[in-house]
Amino acid sequence: MIKLKITIGYKEGVEDPEGLAVKNSLKLLNFGNVNSVKVLKVYEILIEDTEDAKKEAEEMCDRLLVNPVIHDYRIEMERV
Amino acid sequence: MIKLKITIGYKEGVEDPEGLAVKNSLKLLNFGNVNSVKVLKVYEILIEDTEDAKKEAEEMCDRLLVNPVIHDYRIEMERV
Fold first, then answer.
1. For strand B34-47 and strand B71-79, is the pairing parallel, antiparallel, or unpaired?
2. In what side-by-side order are the strands of the sheet with A71-79?
3. A51 exposed, middle or buried (CB, 10 Å; 0-12, 13-18, 19+)?
4. Of B4, B23, B20, nearest to B80 (Cα)?
5. B70: domain CATH number?
6. Interface pTM (ipTM) of the complex?
7. Which residue of A has its CA nearest to B39?
8. CA within 20 to 30 Å of B47's CA: A24, A36, B32, B67, which one?
9. What does the angle CA A13 – CA B76 – CA B2 come to, to the nearest 5 degrees?
């Protein structure tokens, strides 16, 4: 089995609405020293062994997981 | 500045609805070799230097970010 770890975040310059909301909420809760909040999403996908797992992960991103207009992503792989 | 990296996922045994939805969608897109999908959320929070950043991060989790009934979390810290 191969574990794909796909980490998705907003591109530099794209507003991160959830990060902004969390930052504001933390300020309201008196965490006054918060400077910025970024939110990332991680998909840990377990797949059967395959010849080209990297390519398959990229296809998953292109076809389902990532919006290339606003998201950056990176792929890590590990045999488990 | 200190960068807190807080990673939140579902507890063992708690259903991960988004992971399940992504798994089903990947199957429909002919990624037949997908075995399981787990979704994690990562908050990267930049704060001003403080004496006890670990404790502050734990407080953020308790008071805002984490639902202890269903979530597990881990905290990493890095001076930046």
1. unpaired
2. A71-79, A2-10, A34-47, B34-47, B2-10, B71-79
3. exposed
4. B4
5. 3.30.1280.10
6. 0.92
7. A43
8. B67
9. 60
Handedness of CA A14, A19, A21, A24 (dihedral sign): negative
> Would you state the pLDDT for residue A53?
95
The predicted-structure confidence for A38-61, as pLDDT tens digits, reads as follows 999 999 999 999 989 999 999 999
- pLDDT, mean over chain A: 97
Chain B residues within 8 A of A50 when measuring between CB atoms: 33
d(CA A19, CA B10) in angstroms, rounded, equals: 20
Find which of B46, B56, B59 to mutate to test the A interface (most A CBs within 10 Å of its CB). Answer: B46
Query: Which one of A1, A22, A63 has the shortest CB-CB distance to B43?
Result: A22
Considering only CB atoms, A45 lies closest to which of B34, B43, B48, namely B34
How many domains would you assign to chain A? 1
Low-confidence ranges of chain A (pLDDT < 50): none
